[in-house]
Amino acid sequence: MSSLLDFEKPIAELEGKVKELRHLANGSDLDLEEEIARLEGRASKLLSTTYGKLTPWQKTQVARHADRPHFSDYVAALVDEFTPLAGDRCFGDDAAIIGGLGRLKGRPVLVIGHEKGRETEDRVRHNFGMARPEGYRKAVRLMRLAERFGLPVVTLVDTPGAHPGIRAEERGQAEAIARSIETCLGLEVPIVSVIVGEGGSGGAIALATADRVLMLEHSIYSVISPEGCAAILWRNSDQAEAAAEALKLTAQDLLGLGLVDEIIAEPLGGAHRGRGTTIETVGHAISRHLAALDGTPPHEIRRRRREKYLHMGRELE
């Protein structure tokens, strides 16, 4: 891992000691296997204990971890013959949202998702996953294309939120997001969405208004970031931890509220410690939910999806 979270430091110290002992034992007569096994056991137990009781703020940090799989990683591993499609046919292309055609476990699909980028230059090019209006208009164009050819839509959400810049507002950011949500609600093909990292505000909902919304175990989904909420309520972003607790943004909270349909388990220690396993698990979950939607008449797909979102919140009123 290139990044280390604060609460992971005690675990990293133990793992570091194990590496040191292995290095000392390599090529020498020292018998350190018993001590190595003891330290590995302590590290494994501490990892399990730590990740078994993460606070909402800690889950927020895990969801933002730089080493979590990104959209491009999922596509490279899961989607064969991926053909990216660019541009909104109105203004330009937005690298914060990538979409295209391909085959997921042999099934033709349209895949759309946020891409944050990894290295600094790459992150700037993808605008840290914060889409502008042309990104959402591209998504609408591609979803309409999928409907025309009867292809299911798969979306992978990982964004702090839509880009809040003045140029984005001038080009109709709010309208573009609303149009994307409207398009999702009206499509007559199945939509399966997975929150793989951050699901921030309307920027996330624009791609996650789906028949099935799944969340990775340590991902988050909220109307606003904890820092933004703290700045509004307490005039102090230092209260982000308290805001994360109040926002009910974890996968477990949202499943309990009936706002998502399933939690996808992550490897022990989070997706950043087992990227390949995470990607494989997500692929199986998407395939399973697409299969469950097979054979549903197009008009019924649309009706059920609209009813699903109209029903949200009724039990809480």
What does the model show?
The structure is a single chain. This protein is α/β, with parallel strands linked by helices. It has two domains: 6-53; 59-316, 2-enoyl-CoA Hydratase, Chain A, domain 1, CATH 3.90.226. It has 14 helices and eight strands. Strands 1, 2, 3, 4, 5, 6, 7 and 8 form an eight-stranded mixed sheet that branches. α9 (201-208) links the parallel β5 and β6. The radius of gyration is 21 Å and the shape is globular. The N and C termini lie far apart (45 Å).
Question: Can you count the beta strands?
Answer: 8
Low-pLDDT runs: none
CATH architecture of the largest domain: Alpha-Beta Complex
Shape: globular
Helix content: 40-55%
CATH topology term of the largest domain? 2-enoyl-CoA Hydratase, Chain A, domain 1
Radius of gyration: 21 Å
Secondary-structure-based class equals alpha/beta
- The string of secondary-structure elements, in order, is HHHHEEEHHEHHEHEEHHHEHH
How many helix segments? 14
Q: Strand share of the residues?
A: 15-25%
User: Main sheet, how many strands, which sense, barrel?
Assistant: 8 strands, mixed
Give the full name of the CATH homologous superfamily of the largest domain: 2-enoyl-CoA Hydratase, Chain A, domain 1
As for the number of domains, it is 2
Brief write-up:
The protein has helices at residues 9-25, 33-51, 56-63, 71-78, 120-125, 133-148, 166-170, 173-186, 201-208, 226-233, 240-247, 251-256, 275-293, 298-311, and strands at residues 79-84, 97-104, 107-114, 153-159, 191-200, 212-216, 220-222, 262-264. It has 317 residues and is α/β, with parallel strands linked by helices. Strands 1, 2, 3, 4, 5, 6, 7 and 8 form an eight-stranded mixed beta sheet that branches.
